Amino acid sequence: MAYDWGLRELQNEAANIFREFLPEDSTFQSxxxxxxxxxxxxxxxxxxxCLRYLAWNFEDLIYSPAWTKIxxxxxxxxxxxxxxxxxxxxxxxxxxxxxxxxQENTTIPKILLKHIRFPMLSAEDLYRLDDSQYHxxxxxxxxxxxxxxSVLLSDLTEKGDIYTPRIYNGKTWSFTFSSQxxxxxxxxxxxxxxxxxxxxxPPGSPQVVEDGGEEDEEELSGGEEAEFxxxxxxxxxxxxxxxxxxxxxxxxxxxPGDGVLAIHYLGKNFVGDLLNDGKIRWxxxxxxxxxxxxxxxxxxxxxxxAKKSGCGWASVRxxxxxxxxxxTTWLHKYQPSAxxxxxxxxxxxxxxxxxxxxxxxxxxxxxxxxxVMVSRRADRERIPVRYCSLGTRDAARxxxxxxxxxxxxxxxxxxxxxxxxxxxxxxxxxxHCHLTTSEVVGxxxxxxxxxxxxxxxxxxxxxxxxxxxxxxxxxxxxxxxQNLFMRGLSLVGWYHSHPRGPALPSLQDIDSQxxxxxxxxxxxxxxxxxxxxxxxPYYHGNQGVASTITPFWVVPPPEQRPNDYGIPVAVEVxxxxxxxxxxxxxxxxxxxxxxxxTAPDLVQFNQYWCPExxxxxxxxxxLSCHAPKDQAYSQILEHVYSQLSNTH
Length: 648
Hints:
Cytidine Deaminase, domain 2
């Protein structure tokens, strides 16, 4: 309007306001319309601001519904830029293929295809391009991958754009400088890059770190060590504090070597050399530590500054085995009458390989897809038991026995990852669980950031199938996998309901969760968490009308008790309120209504949940706890509720 009336000052002020709103719309609809407006009024400044925002958020843009409706001129303008932020050039090409297909083009328009920087594609990705439209460009890409720069010098000069990388943040293009590496660099002026040690100052004599915390073992002098050995008869009381790495070295239980010691803590790996004198040299910085506890405490504090001291012998591994086990072996050999109960105490102190199982997943589990869970008995009033009362696995025990959750602190652990869950995920999950008196299941999509150890849950994928229906399960899973891929998400967990019971895991749930954790971890021993969520919509022990939603994880049993059940622990979660109720969520809700419309176990929403509260009031009240910021959502959901009312 300001443009039509020639009100230049008002037009400029409106443009400034537009800039402020750019980050507010996660759907990208506003940014695209602003850019269109800027072109219409020839506002180059606003146009460049919008294009830069879209370029810096390009990967999210191409996975959004708005990408398929983006105009040709805007696609061309974006592809010509070098400040596009994506994992690699292949992501841009796949996004362009999707855009062209939805414009009903059999091939990508040549004027757009020439903006794809094929020399920036890896040889593997180039090899996978089969379409004839790529033949000429593939050759250019292979040449760049295979030939030296001196041969390509003329091409590099004449066709500079296609040889100019964009802002790629994927592997081989970038590296992460973590907080622990920064601390190590500030401490010693040294860091590792490309497998080499980089130092900012001439190397001096290695620093010896002696602070090992409260549990640090005492170093013995030569005389004390001899006295210790002579007093190690059958009548003496031997404690673990008297056994040092020097003792184990002299008695031949361990040998010095490079890279034979390791610590795995909260997804971070530390490697150390065992020296001839029993001291430890940290490979990354060259620092010298007097004892395992000193090294373990130092490394853990780099990752988690709030970490208190613990047993380094239970945290440090020698050639894959805990050092504490070598202490045990020494005691068996030289103190057969010693009370070994105190040996196992420290083994339980900390198992820092969070989420790593004691068994390997079958080869078939590499597809990272949990199976749809098998049918369970209907929920009934069951009294949860404490984990400590379970003991060893017993085939006669009811697999539907509910187990109370432990806290990480109760088992001397720190939660090995942070979790953020979108409110739209909770809303769709809660809606699904409310529809039927039978148990339901679904999967969770999101992203895992290994650098920040943050698991972000962005989308729920309800399984529109019966738990016992194995015939349709694979088709439903395949559809969910395609949806995950199209949205650029990974499988990060699963949810299920206990319709009338407490939202606590059963023994069967614990085993299922452990299986899923192993499958998501795969066979490369890399750490990726798998979140389990239980929703209890109709349990009368709930507070008010809101469902109880319980995120949980399973810690493997101690290595010395492999036949015990896994330990279910409560996961602390940050709930993030979405700005809007997305069309994806609304569409999924309508599909669920259609699926359960004629089901015999559909909840009768005109019946009463309790005096003066109908089932419809119950679901409305529970879903309001997961409301987005935009209050117009309630009007949108009224349409869904009206469809539910018409199912009876």
